[in-house]
Design brief:
By secondary structure, this protein is α/β, with parallel strands linked by helices. It contains six helices and twelve strands. The chain has one domain: NagB/RpiA/CoA transferase-like (Rossmann fold).
Length: 203
């Protein structure tokens, strides 16, 4: 792990990070549908083994796209436990920010400019970050120290920088194979306190 501070070092580090993204995304997108469904079910079961899930009321997560670990089984379990589910929505007034809007079986969705689905009715269902108990965070790769590589847009970096102040717990969700030994770390990267795969809890 190191910080890329000079221009040449940063460019080289960005290239390494991008190559890791491409490599992991290629593996994810080659998974068979039955493998994705199995992993989705296992990660939901794994998450609900933890006592912390008995105390939460409001949870934000993502609808999977681009081969991300499936959240459909987790969403169903959250609903069954009467836990409120919120999805990310692009903020029209701040291009680097995400809003979180309530999601249930009757929520209408639209495909946004980044090609993920988000709720249409933002105003009525929006929740403040400090009212959330958990934000489940997508990632492309992670290491054992909790650092993550996202898609490169920086949306979750913006939210994660104040996670302790806002008093929610960010938890990364990933397949087991998304663990990598190392990658360049930049000063704005925020390590996740918890990452959960279908078989392992990383803290």
């Amino acid at each position: 792990m190191y910080f890329a501070l000079n221009k040449n070092g940063m460019l080289y580090s960005m290239l390494i990070r991008q190559n890791i993204r491409l490599y992991i995304r290629n593996i994810r997108n080659r998974l068979m549908s039955y493998e994705k469904k199995k992993a989705s079910l296992k990660i939901a079961q794994h998450i609900f083994q933890y006592e912390m899930m008995n105390r939460v009321k409001n949870v934000a997560l993502f609808l999977s796209f681009d081969g991300e670990i499936g959240t459909e089984s987790l969403i169903i379990k959250l609903w069954e436990k009467n836990i409120n589910v919120y999805l990310p929505v692009l903020d029209k007034f701040n291009v680097k920010n995400l809003l979180f809007v309530k999601y249930n079986e009757n929520t209408s969705l639209k495909l946004n400019k980044l090609n993920f689905f988000e709720p249409i009715n933002v105003i009525d269902g929006k929740i403040l970050l400090d009212k959330l108990d958990i934000i489940f965070v997508p990632l492309v790769a992670f290491n054992k120290k909790g650092y993550r590589l996202g898609m490169g847009g920086g949306f979750y970096d913006f939210i994660l920088k104040d996670w302790q102040k806002n008093n929610f717990l960010p938890i990364g969700l990933a397949y087991n194979f998304q663990l990598v030994s190392n990658f360049p770390i930049f000063p704005w990267d925020v390590p996740l306190p918890v990452i959960i795969t279908p078989t392992t809890l990383w803290k």
